[in-house]
Write a structure and sequence with these properties.
Radius of gyration: 32 Å
CATH topology of the largest domain: Pyruvate Kinase, Chain: A, domain 1
Strand content: 5-15%
Structural class: alpha/beta
Number of strands: 4
Shape: elongated
Number of domains: 2
Strand order of the largest sheet: 2-1-3-4
CATH superfamily of the largest domain: ATP synthase, F1 complex, gamma subunit
Length: about 300
Amino acid sequence: MANVKELKARIEGVQETRKITNAMYLVASTKLRHAREALDRTRPYFDAMRQEVERVFRTGQSARSRYFYSPEGGIPKKGVCGILVITADKGLAGAYNLNALRKAEEILKEKPDSRLFVVGEYGRRHFRMRHRAFETDFRFTAQDPTFNRARQICTQLLDLYDKKELNEIVVVYTEMKSSLSTETMLQHLLPMKREPFASEEADENDGQFEFLPSFDAVLAAVMRSYISGFIYSALVDSFCSEQNSRVTAMDAAGRNAEELLSDLSLQLNRERQSAITQEITEISAGAMAQRRNNNGKEASS
């Protein structure tokens, strides 16, 4: 059993750890609040862009586009799949990173020739340690996502898609369902299915659309904005999920530290009591020995 000195050292270490976890809890809580506000601002824009795509499709449902499956519903030919994986820059966020990376590994098993585009240093370190090839010039951080960063990611991916270096693009990210739950999502980004956009609801202005310079050019411009918005939404959603997971993890760590401190304090008190009892016993034994010695001297005299 540990002695008093060792127990005091352990208690001091746990107290220092608790200070760190409390600080990380407060930081993550603040970041989560700001991220939620950004997410609430993002969704109206994303919904508006989706409505515009629907309006375009209602007037040209039979048109062909490289961003969508063919009207006959054909699937893309075999080719290279681009996987955009959104992780955190660091750990200490529960199973947040692990779930996203596990989902990406599942896709890689099905499509081993895929090209990895990883957001977040944690994900890049994971694939580097497992000797998985990923795009080394694709070095975006997960902290404080901005629409400009989402636009840059969109441009890089779409350029490869337009050059036919990528046949399809999927996104692995984490969606925050509520303050208590998150879910790892796999979104097939390109090519898209037509059905979700081909709304049957008519609009009185649909018949007045005139596409200049062409339907393809207009759809390409709208889709680029739509995809940028989706990627930004995925970045913000993942950032919210990361902070929410970190808040949960640090809260659990704080509670565990409190329980450990309680157990260590109890052990320390027992060790102190045992030490005090031992000292009293030694003093009593010494006093008794001294009295016996004194009585023996008096008897002999």
